[in-house]
Amino acid sequence: MRLQIDEGVPQETPAVFIERCQSLGFSVWRLDVNGMAVSDPRAPAAIRMWLSSPVVRRLLVECAEYWSTMDEPGACEPSPGLWVQPVPVEHRGRRIGFCVLVGFTSKVLGTDILREGVDGDPLALAALSHTIGGVVQPWDTIGETAQLLLRWVHEDQRAMQELEQSIETCTDQLSESYETLTAMHILGREMGSVDDPRSFVEQTLELISVTINFRWAGCVLSDGAPIEGDRVVQSGDLEIEPERVQELLRMIESSEPIAVSDETTVYDSMGVLPELEPQVIRHPIRARGTHFGWLVIGGKRGEDSYVSSHDTKTLDSISGILASFLENAMLYEEQRAMFIGTVNALSNAIDAKDPYTQGHSERVAMLSEALARSLGYDDEAAQRVRLCGILHDIGKIGVPESVLCKDGRLTDEEFGLIKKHPTIGARMLDGIPSLTDIIPGVEHHHERWDGGGYPAGLSGENIPEIARILALADTFDAMSSNRAYRDAMPREKVFAEFERCSGSQFDPAMVAPFLALDFGPYDAAVSRAKAQTKIRAAA
Fold first, then answer.
1. How many domains does the chain have?
2. Which of 45, 128, 384, 422 is most solvent-facing, going by the fewest CB within 10 Å?
3. Which residues of the chain have pLDDT under 70?
């Protein structure tokens, strides 16, 4: 056995060690490597004074010289009945002394060493003999002492095991807390992706199943949730039919939970989905009174398959983030619908000024979006091209109606007024941050590849790409529609004219993809516009 002394306080011996030794009848004394006392003996007063006498100190110095030659010094009996056990004391891996346990057997009583230690004083000798008589260790009690020592060792080992378990539990909790914070950080970072709410829900479910270690996490959306498509979104090791998930939810709503934590309720799996045994958690997704659906998770993995308070608290926090996101997505969708409605109203107002252009902007938007997708634009970019098509003629609001609706051909002066509408439209949209990217298309959709267009006379790739796309769609609809001064051209003639003007009026790289589009939806839109015109004329 060795004592490791804390750095900075090499003079101290652990208090619990001293207390246990004294309870067994031993006196405890700290000596340096030369046997000189480092502190006073821890012993009854009479024994403490006797141990400090020159005769006893001389014996201990001799013992220390003997112990210093040994790696593992053992007990010795320097005088009959005087039992001494050294425990090496180390500091920073170096021996700095001994913690000496001093014990007595009945042999020591009446020996000269007691008398010499008190200088023959009869009263002091009587007191010393009486005190030592109370702590002598008969050899026949060594078994009891050993049992006590073993009991102490067992208690220490059990305490250390409990401490290790506590540390392990604390470590697990810290790890769980870290994973939860990481999940919330990821979700918080993605909160702005309101244009793709389903992906955010899928990511949330994946983080739930990983963070709190469940086999399956699902989201049952209400009709009011701003997500199109399936009302059951899920993630995890399992793929469960939406009908079975809905059945489980109905069973839950008619059952009593086995545990409740705030808004989180825990249920037995009830045999509806044995894959999720033994327990299922349900939590509402709610924000400002709007109910977006339910989070349902089950099939906890790991040694402990039952729901913990950490699980419910984590689910409560993540549900709050998801609810806030869906509320933002709903508001975004409402604003988007309002914006699109306003844009369509403006477009319809322009088209309504001229019966010959009824539905023109919508058809240009349709063809422009289709061409953009054919050229490799992603969904978001193609939608921006469509929006530009809807607004491309917004500047005609500034053109006199007498010119805009004139029967027959326009004079040069009148055509000059018409040519101002791209610039007027660009100025109208300038200053609206959400429309900055489409202004070039509005302003330059009448430019020509050879530089002969207006308003800026741009040529080739100096013409913004979005404007080159709109030029094809706008010209196609103009040639395919009836005008006051001419009838619509046959489709074959329109195609031939496009091929002829490739590289002069139009971007040559776009003509072939445009002519390869499916014009069925366009023809259907033309038919609807004609029918609406007839209805208004009859009214």
1. 3
2. 45
3. 1-13, 138-151, 153-154, 157-158, 167-194, 270-272, 351-357, 483-486, 533, 535-539
Q: Are residues 294 and 206 in the same domain?
A: yes
Helix (H, G, I), strand (E, B) or coil at 216: strand
Residue 295's nearest CA partner among 269, 266, 274, 270 is 266
In single-letter form, the type of residue at position 57 comes to R
Which CATH number fits the domain that encloses residue 363?
A: 1.10.3210.10
420: its two tokens:
């101002």
Q: Which two tokens stand for residue 534?
A: 């007839």
Question: Among positive and negative, which fits the CA dihedral 63, 66, 71, 74?
Answer: negative
Domain-embedded: residue 339: no
Same domain, 449 and 384: yes
CB within 8 Å of 431: residues ≥ 6 apart: none
Write out the two tokens for 462. Answer: 């100096």
Co-location of 39 and 106 in the same domain = yes
Residue 8's pLDDT is: 47
Give the three-state DSSP class for 30. Answer: strand
What is the distance between the alpha carbons of residues 116 and 54, in angstroms, rounded to a whole number? 9
Give the pairing of strands 279-287 and 214-221. unpaired
- DSSP SS3 for 336: helix
What's the confidence (pLDDT) of residue 483?
63
Amino acid at 34: N
Residue pointed to by tokens 């913004």: 464
Do 456 and 428 form a contact (C-beta atoms < 8 A)?
Answer: no
Host domain of residue 17: 3-137
Given a contact cutoff of 8 angstroms between Cβ atoms, the answer to whether 404 and 360 are in contact is no
Q: Are residues 274 and 383 in the same domain?
A: no
Q: Supply the pLDDT for residue 173.
A: 55
Q: Are residues 368 and 515 in the same domain?
A: yes
Q: Coil, strand, or helix at residue 477? A: helix
Same domain flag for 115 and 190? no
Tell me if 148 is assigned to some domain.
no
Say if residue 459 is exposed, middle or buried (CB neighbours under 10 Å; 0-12, 13-18, 19+): middle
Residue 147 lies in a domain: no
Note whether 380 and 526 are same-domain residues.
yes
pLDDT of residue 86: 86
Measured CA distances, 301 to 186, 211, 276, 279 (Å): 23, 11, 10, 11
Give yes or no: residues 451 and 365 share one domain. yes
pTM: 0.52
